[in-house]
Design brief:
By secondary structure, the protein is of the alpha/beta class. It is built from 34 helices and 26 strands. The protein has a nine-stranded mixed β-sheet with strand order 9-12-13-6-3-14-15-19-20. Strands 23-22-21-24-25-26 form a six-stranded parallel β-sheet, with helices on both faces. The protein is globular, with a radius of gyration of 28 Å. The chain starts with a strand and ends in a 7-residue tail after the last helix. The N terminus is likely disordered. It binds N-(hydroxyacetyl)-beta-D-glucopyranosylamine. The site of N-(hydroxyacetyl)-beta-D-glucopyranosylamine (9GP) has 18 residues, from helix 7.
């Protein structure tokens, strides 16, 4: 352990000799020391949990050295840094990822074995850091991994929620939410920085005063409530590099200032309660995905987080550059992950004008160079608007600044488009409605130099729909696309070690360098006619399916046969993602199979001529207040109860709902799928990233022409994906038709509806809203239009899958399905989040990697 750190302070950097990462003796010594000191236990009663804690502390010690060195190096090189502001970082588990990125997995595994532990069991002890809802938060987690792995100087800023996304239980088919107190055993990966405390104010009032030195008028924001933001840092190791960036998450704490007036008035309890309330700001993650709830506490969270982050950033800048504000935009880029951090624009303007005394125009010029905004959705219910009254009460000075920003902006628009009052109304940051509100997306666009969507189709759509007027005002160059990506370290190497190893072997790349150069997967194409290779590929998939079958057995008690087609849809439950389309198709399949059986067709014949055996596997959480999504979950579970308990059906069909879908379950489900569903109504899914994860793990996709499916198709080839459904350009027309001409329910869908209405899946009233929404209320998500196309796509793909039943010598399956699987993996290089971060760095942030 003592050899951990070899300082070479002359060069201003430290070199590391991280013995614990490479030497068994050093690891074991550190492990024992942590058991005895950090945990105050002894080796005789060291269980798996203690082993996890001692191991993570050991790895963390090594990580901290890289982290400290990186911060020192970044400060010395003094290049531009990007700050990624995200209200969600859905990190999942940290240990396995750290072991992989630090290249210490083998040493740790064998050291633990010598100490009497099994690495896999130890890894299982770690709770997921579930500080996010879905794609948006997971994207942020992939981005910080890529920032480190590609040697950029980049920090994440977010909130350190005590309760992450709720845990989902399924009771009698219903979703039940229980709190996720993930910090039960403390978090070895967090470094509490109690010395970094930033006061954040709320409420109060604004008055005008005069600067005693210059005599100029200035605004003072006074009174109100004060909360402290205390930093917790999470080192983010890069893969095959020492570069270790920082993820800083804020905790809300009460100030030491105590309200003595209340105390003297005998109201001690109230002043304590007020202090306790402070902590509630960071206590819980809002469990909504693609939906804004508009709650005051949410706005408080947003301001608390951006204010602390901005003051921290400005403080760091001033340490090196004093008040040389001209350099600010050369040193700092800030990316707004969705509109949640938009108040950062206002806060930086306030810091410059009110606190640092800059002229308004000068300040605004810097602000707009610093910020860039990523839009992640076109869905109106997810676009944030804050009532002016609420915002003005909570942040009175900010509301004034927003009005000033808007006044200047509208004056410019008026000059450019004189007399176009409608345009002014549409682009205004203030929506003159009831209630009057602040449009956060408009504010984000006005205050940023670039706005990007997250896949080509989505980036085009925002330019022609929700942000059309802004394209007119600012010109199209301000709008750009950066297609999302995923980190292949977690989503290939960690989730699918056998496949990652086979690829490394075939690419002759023992150090897995392809993981930071994912384009080299292309070389796999040369093995596509090699039967031995295809068999190995297929048998790895089979092993992963066995693992998934075990997870299903453990969590639902349902047995699925790993030789059948695993047909998966795991993601947040949302009407636009259309899990209802999928379960309706499952119901149809069940009804047809029953019909065939009743006509005397044998199971064997059904398998050969009609339906191959399959397991439909679902997973995902519904926002607690989202009735329709919860109804869909209920229906899936009830269909499962009927189908799985029908003795006639056997392994022809199983329907599974895996409870509490999260990152660590995704690491098992993704590699274990044959087929995954990405079947959103065209034009609604901005990108999707699980589609990338499945394809990178050799699963094929059934999908609509939506989000990143479009580019996945382009990369892997149309023949390797099963596309169906109406296109985005027809959606408006179809919706219109539904309203004016009614919805056409095909014969197949009608059968499904009448089965549900017959009560075989429980009380039909429970599904009334779901069915009526389609039949009588306009079928907004076009389930009726795509249903038969979906069934046809299934028929087609099942022919390709064949009846292989896990038989590696079934050459038909090998040559048709497995080849497609290989070809899709070989062409997924584009979807590495490393490529994505390089694009942001070059086109938006203007930053270069650090020299190593
Ligand atoms: O719904 C999008 C999803 O399509 C995308 O992949 C993800 C990351 O860009 O963001 C999601 N959007 C939100 O969660 C809310 O805007």
């Amino acid at each position: 352990y003592s050899q951990l750190k070899v300082l070479d302070s002359n060069k201003g950097t430290t070199q590391t000799n991280q013995g614990v990462l490479t030497s068994k003796d050093a690891f074991e010594e550190s492990f024992v020391r942590h058991v005895e000191t950090t945990l105050a236990r002894n080796m005789y009663n060291c269980d798996n949990l203690a082993a996890y804690q001692a191991t993570s502390n050991t790895i963390r010690d090594a990580l901290l050295i890289d982290w400290a060195n990186t911060q020192q190096k970044q400060t010395i090189q003094d290049g531009k840094r990007v700050y990624y502001l995200s209200l969600e970082f859905l990190m999942g588990r940290a240990m396995d990822n750290a072991l992989i990125n630090l290249n210490s997995r083998d040493n740790t595994k064998s050291s633990l074995t010598e100490l009497g532990f099994n690495l896999e069991d130890v890894l299982e002890q770690e709770p997921d850091a579930a500080l996010g809802n879905g794609g948006l938060g997971r994207l942020a987690a992939c981005f910080v991994d890529s920032l480190s792995s590609k040697n950029y100087s980049g920090w994440g800023y977010g909130l350190n929620y005590q309760y992450g996304i709720f845990k989902q239980k399924i009771v009698d088919g219903y979703q039940i939410e229980t709190p996720d107190y993930w910090l039960k055993y403390s978090n070895p990966w967090e470094i509490m920085r109690n010395e970094i405390q930033i006061p954040v104010d709320f409420y109060g009032y604004v008055y005008e005063d005069h600067d005693p030195n210059t005599g100029k008028a200035k605004k003072i924001w006074a009174g109100g409530e004060r909360v402290l933001a205390v930093a917790a840092d999470f080192p983010i190791p890069g893969f095959n590099t020492d570069n270790t960036n920082n993820l800083r998450l804020w905790n809300a704490k009460p100030t030491n200032e105590f309200d003595f007036t209340k105390f003297n008035a005998g109201d001690y309890q109230q002043s304590v309660a007020a202090q306790q309330r402070a902590e509630s700001i960071t206590s819980v993650l809002y469990p909504n995905d693609n939906f804004e709830s508009g709650k005051e506490l949410r706005l408080k969270q947003q301001y608390f987080w951006v204010s602390a982050s901005l003051h921290d950033i400005v403080r760091r800048f001033k340490k090196n550059h004093k008040n040389n504000w001209n350099k600010f935009a050369d040193q700092i880029a800030i990316q707004l992950n969705d509109t949640h951090p938009t108040l950062a624009i206002v806060e930086l303007q306030r810091i410059f004008v009110d606190l640092e005394g800059l002229e308004w125009d000068k300040a605004w010029e810097i602000v707009t160079k610093v910020f860039a905004y990523t839009n992640h959705t076109v869905m109106s219910e997810a676009l944030e608007k804050w009532p002016v009254d609420l915002l003005g009460r909570l942040l009175p000075r900010h509301l004034e600044i927003i009005y000033d920003i808007n006044f200047n902006f509208l004056s410019d628009v008026e000059k450019k488009f004189p007399g176009d009052r409608d345009l002014l109304g549409r682009v205004s940051v203030i929506e003159e409605n009831h209630p009057k509100s602040v449009r956060m997306a408009s504010l984000a666009i006005v205050g940023s130099h670039k706005v990007n969507g997250v896949a080509e189709l989505h980036s085009e759509l925002i330019k022609t729909t929700i942000f059309k007027d802004f394209v007119k005002v600012f010109g199209k160059d301000k709008f750009t696309n950066v297609t999302n990506g995923i980190t292949p370290r977690r989503w290939l190497r960690q989730a699918n070690p056998k496949l990652a190893a086979l690829i490394a072997e075939k690419l002759n790349d023992p150090n897995y360098e392809y993981l930071t150069n994912l384009g080299s997967l292309k070389k796999l194409e040369q093995f596509v006619n090699d039967d031995e290779f295809l068999k190995r590929w297929d048998s790895i998939k089979f092993d992963n399916k066995v693992k998934l079958a075990n997870l299903i057995k453990e969590t639902t008690n349902i047995e699925v046969d790993p030789t059948v087609l695993f047909d998966v849809q795991v993601k947040r439950i949302h009407e636009y993602k259309r899990q209802q389309l999928n379960i309706f198709a499952v119901i149809y399949r069940y009804l047809r199979i029953k019909e065939l059986l009743s006509q005397g067709v044998s199971v064997e014949e059904i398998k050969l001529k009609h339906y191959i055996s399959k397991a439909s596997i679902f997973g995902g959480k519904a926002a607690p207040g989202y009735y329709m999504a919860k109804t869909i979950i209920h229906l899936i579970n009830k269909v499962g109860d009927v189908v799985n308990n029908d003795p006639e059906i056997g392994n022809l069909l199983k329907v599974v709902f895996v409870p509490d879908y999260n990152v660590s379950k995704a690491e098992i489900i993704t590699p274990g799928s044959d087929l995954s569903n990405h079947i959103s109504t065209a034009g609604t899914e901005a990108s999707g990233t699980s589609n990338m994860k499945f394809a990178l793990n050799g699963g094929l996709i059934i999908g609509t022409v939506d989000g990143a499916n479009v580019e996945i198709t382009r990369e892997i080839g149309e023949e390797n994906i099963f596309l169906f459904g109406n296109l985005a350009e027809s959606v408006e027309e179809l919706r219109h038709k539904h309203i004016f001409e009614g919805v056409h329910i095909s014969e197949t869908l009608a059968k499904v509806f009448s089965a549900i209405e017959s009560g075989i899946f429980g009380n039909p009233d429970e599904y009334r809203a779901l069915i009526d929404g389609i039949r009588y209320h306009g079928d907004y998500y076009l389930v009726s239009d795509d249903f038969d196309l979906f069934l046809q796509a299934h028929t087609k793909l099942e022919k390709v899958f064949g009846h292989h039943g896990g038989d590696a010598n079934d050459t038909d399956h090998l040559h048709k399905w497995v080849k497609k699987s290989v070809l899709s993996v070989a062409n997924m290089g584009f979807f590495s989040s490393d490529r994505c971060i390089d694009e942001y760095a070059e086109d938006i942030w203007n930053i270069e990697p650090l020299s190593q």
